[in-house]
Specification:
This protein is α/β, with parallel strands linked by helices. The protein has a single domain, classed as 3-Layer(aba) Sandwich (Rossmann fold), CATH 3.40.50. Helix content is 37%, strand content 25%.
């Protein structure tokens, strides 16, 4: 693992499946938990939406790790095939490896862990949560595809918040069905007037507020 620093965040690299993945860690002083971000199809850890949410979480006293679950070469292939972005098992396995890295890293190993997943990344987060049930304290899905988690959905034990845009009609139905299948503390919030990417004024701010409240509650509870 190697690191390079900036004023507020630092970049990390770690190996998984014989490839090197890249991420960006941000950790406020006296962090009370850490949230791993699993972005959706066609996005990256540089997504302005996820970076905004990460900034809000850090202001709430939570560390963040935004990671690219595919390498640059794999992303290039996926643009042509649209295959790897839907390989939920592969993405979940790499998210688990990132979780293990957090537990081994001296700066983060004592922090409670949560997952923030967007689109297909939400499915990967839910599957990964079943692989690390003893340590994943909360999951938040933004415009997610929890249905892609398949049979793992009913095995999730981490408290799960599903956030969907009010105008994202197909995804609302998907999340309503997923809510029925979850057997843990759960909640579905529909943000009025928002579409899939929450580009509307105030929509992403509401996502960040909801996520911060969920994570602070579940990652800092005794």
């Amino acid at each position: 693992m190697t690191e390079t620093s900036t004023d507020e965040e630092h970049c990390v690299r770690f190996s998984t499946d014989s490839v090197m993945l890249e991420g960006t860690v941000g950790k406020p002083k006296e962090a009370r938990g850490v949230v791993l971000f699993a972005h959706g199809s066609g996005s990256s850890r540089h997504s302005p939406r996820n970076r905004y949410v990460a900034q809000v979480l850090r202001k709430s006293g939570l560390a963040t790790l935004l990671i690219d679950l595919l390498t640059a070469d794999e992303e290039a292939i996926d643009i042509q095939t649209l295959h790897l972005r839907f390989d939920i098992r592969l993405l979940a396995k790499r998210l688990v490896d990132a979780t293990d890295w957090i537990e081994q890293n001296s700066d983060t190993r004592n922090l409670a862990i949560g997952y923030f997943g967007a689109s297909t990344g939400a499915a990967a987060a839910l599957v990964a949560a079943t692989e690390r049930q003893e340590i994943i304290r909360a999951v938040v899905s933004r415009g997610g595809r929890p249905d892609l988690a398949g049979s793992a959905l009913s095995l999730v034990r981490s408290p799960t918040l599903l956030i969907v845009g009010g105008n994202d009609l197909p995804v609302i139905g998907i999340n309503q069905e997923a809510l029925k299948r979850l057997s843990t503390k759960k909640k579905l919030v529909i943000v009025p007037g928002a579409t899939h990417l929450f580009d509307e004024p105030g929509a992403l701010e509401e996502v960040a507020r909801l996520a911060a409240a969920w994570f602070v509650h579940h990652l800092t509870a005794t």
